[in-house]
Amino acid sequence: MTEFTDFDVAEHLKPPGDMAEYLEACFEEDAGDGLLIRSALNDIARAQGMTQVARDAGLGRESLYKALSSTGNPEFATIMKVMKALGLKLHATAV
Prior knowledge:
The chain has one domain. It contains five helices and no strands. It has helices at 16-29, 35-48, 50-57, 61-67, 76-85.
C-alpha cells in the first residue's frame, strides 16, 4: 500500500525568489477570477507568518485570513498592502 503525506507549498516558499516565481506563475494561470492569486498570496503569507504579514500590511490577522480565503473578495488596495508586506511588487509586461 502506498502512503501519501500532505504537501504544503508554504513550507517551500522561504526564499524571496521562490515566492516571486510562484506568484508570477499563478498570475499567468489564474482563470481571471483571482482565486489562484489569492491562494498563492495565502500560501506565501503562511510561509512568512500570517501574524507578521498582517501586522506589516496594517491589517488584522482575521481580516487577512478572510481576504485571502477562497471566498474572499479583497479590495485591490488590500492586495497591494499584502504584496508590499511580503516584499513583492506587482508589474506588467506587454504580451
